[in-house]
Amino acid sequence: MSDDILIINPWRTLRRHTSARIGLGRAGVSQPTSAHLAFQLAHAQARDAVHRELDHEALGESLRAVGLETLDLHSAAADRAEYLQRPDLGRRLDDASTALLGASEPTDPLDLALVVADGLSALAIERHALAFLSALRPLLAVDWRWAPVAIVRQARVAIGDPIGHALGAKLVVVLIGERPGLSSPDSMGVYVTWDPRPGRVDAERNCISNVRPEGLAPEAAAARLAWLLNEARARQVTGVALKDESADAAPAVETRETFRLDGS
Predict the structure, then answer these.
(1) Residues 6 or more apart from 229 whose CB is under 8 A from it?
(2) Cβ contacts of residue 94 below 8 Å, gap of 6+?
């Protein structure tokens, strides 16, 4: 399409500050061809992220390479298709995983259970989980006792509750791939729950969202989580009872907080 046909949108200069689809211009009453093709590409990337299977073996190897023990678990959803159609099955473990956790019951109480779950974007976990956990470890004091990292396939956020309960942990942290937006197919979420057990609700969790280099950098998210964990252990609460005031208490860390107008 020739430049003399394209009508430039005056908002175009704002695009340097966000990946949201603003200031695209128009050609007649339609979007420019380049903007339309970019939208189709983003939609395909989001769809692929939702259907992508987690490479749990590679993830486990990378976590063990930095000294973290792992557990390989699976939700009650047999495959990706069932997971997408039955959210309830993604919130509980299958029989084999339940038995494995029962066999690995710790002798001493643990402070922290970590769950790495594919969620709705395995791509997010594959790209950011290792960097996030590597940044988190030095931020927690030596008296934090960690359970092995549970890698869970076909999982939803609430699956951390039975895992943390079975491991006898005071807190559970779930790293999970968030629903892809049309500019963020690899966004990771982090959920924190005090005293995990089946039946916990979302109001009892704290959430750190949009963890990725283009959003909240993994290092900044790890600093925020470390603050939440220390406060949660001291106050013995999470969720609406624990306000995130980490920005007031921690040194400034460079981040790129983005806003999106694509409904994500």
Answers:
(1) 112, 140, 144, 171, 173, 192
(2) 74, 75, 76
Q: What is the pLDDT of residues 155-210, one digit of tens each?
A: 999 999 999 999 999 999 999 999 998 878 999 999 999 999 999 999 999 999 99
pTM of the model: 0.84
Treating both helix axes as pointing N-terminal to C-terminal, what angle do 56-65 and 122-136 enclose, rounded to 10 degrees?
10
Tell the residue number behind the tokens 């694509």, with chain if given: 262
* 116 CB-side CA count, 13 A: 30
What secondary structure does DSSP assign to the chain, as a single string?
--TTT-B--GGGGGGGG-SSS----BBTTB--HHHHHHHHHHHHHHHHHHHPPP-HHHHHHHHHHTT--EEEEEBS--SHHHHHH-GGGGGSB-HHHHHHHHHT--SS-EEEEEEEE-TT-HHHHHHHHHHHHHHHGGGS-TTPPBPPEEEEES--GGGHHHHHHHHTEEEEEEEEEPPPBTTBTT-EEEEEEES--TT--GGGEEEEEEESTTSB-HHHHHHHHHHHHHHHHHHT--GGGS---HHHHS----------SS--
109-118 per-position pLDDT tens digit = 899 999 999 9
What pLDDT does residue 246 have? 83
**pLDDT score at 252:** 45
Query: How many Å apart are CA 49 and CA 252, to the nearest integer?
Result: 32
